[in-house]
TrEMBL record:
Its EC number is 7.1.1.1. One of its GO terms (molecular function) is NADP binding. It comes from Chitinophaga barathri. It is a multi-pass membrane protein. The chain crosses the membrane at residues 14-32, 44-62, 68-91. GO terms for biological process: NADPH regeneration. This is proton-translocating NAD(P)(+) transhydrogenase. It catalyses: NAD(+) + NADPH + H(+)(in) = NADH + NADP(+) + H(+)(out). Keywords: Cell inner membrane, Cell membrane, Membrane, NAD, NADP, Translocase, Transmembrane, Transmembrane helix.
Amino acid sequence: MTAVLDFLQLHIEMVYIVILSIFLGIEVIGRVPSVLHTPLMSGANAIHGVVIIGAIIVMGKAESDNYLALILGFLAVILGTLNVVGGFVVTDRMLEMFKKKK
């Protein structure tokens, strides 16, 4: 427990930034009309390719005996891939709704 408290004391600026970004994100998302929410979320999900690249980099730089980094990297790749695919599926379905029916 003292290690966590020491980390927080050393990186208090990062903690403030994370807390402020959480409040800002909630405020921004709360003001988006419900009509625009699905297109924005499908686009944001597609941007999760950055998470996949970061996870691959973490897994590549991790030591072979560092199982925690390898497991977390693997889970990040899997979950990021699911999010990207889901974003593309939702976007495709949304675009199908705007096509003219024959």
